[in-house]
Amino acid sequence: MPTLRPEDDYLQSAWKDNVYPTAERIGLEMKLPTVSPQPHTRLAHEGTEFAKEHGRGTEYVHEVFRAFFQRSEDIGNPEVLVGLAAAAGLDAQEFGESIAARHYRERTETLLKQARLQMITAVPTFLIGRQRVTGLYPAEALAKVIDAQMKTP
Q1: Helix (H) or strand (E) holding 20
Q2: Do 38 and 90 sit in the same domain of this protein?
């Protein structure tokens, strides 16, 4: 499927109205990536599974986040991912071979199927009791949903 383009109105508006204010409020440095069209992220997700298995999942995800949302790097490019894996403390050669061989493809597909079964189609999505909350909401709004779900039998 085609991915979004940062120069189009949708992303420009979403970032201006939601992402930038939220990031500023919580002190997170973010900018709309200029990679156009936005990359497919399947290999980055497969890399996450490799990193988790090697005890560096959090570090790898942080590197991918910074690369895309702070430096506008193409996280769909396997060479970029290898560099990010090395920065996260993973063996670059082993990571690259794993990504090239698609060793974590099946596991990633399984996780994607699980998300679809739970009707998770957007980021962020919160499943709070029986309530699904999709999109960016202030903490107070999420707290109200949590409170309401705790009162639901």
Answers
A1: helix 20-26
A2: yes
Encoding tokens for residue 85? Answer: 């894996």
- Is 2 inside any structural domain? no
Residue 153's domain spans which residues? 118-153
Total domains in the chain come to: 2
Whether residue 153 has pLDDT greater than 80: no
CATH number reported for the structural domain that contains residue 45 in this entry = 3.40.30.10
At 118, the pLDDT band (50, 70, 90 cuts) reads: confident
Same domain for 147 and 82, yes or no, is: no
Convert the pLDDT of each residue in 54-80 to its tens digit: 999 999 999 999 999 999 999 999 999
- Taking the CA atoms of the chain, what radius of gyration do you get in angstroms? 17
Rounded to two decimals, the pTM is 0.84
- What long-range pairs does 96-100 form, CB within 8 A, spacing at least 24? 98/46, 98/50, 99/43, 99/46, 99/47, 99/50
Nearest by Cα to 42 from 95, 117, 102, 94: 102
DSSP, residue by residue, 44-83: HHHHHHHHHHTT-HHHHHHHHHHHHHTT---TTSHHHHHH
Q: Is it the case that residue 22 has pLDDT exceeding 90?
A: no
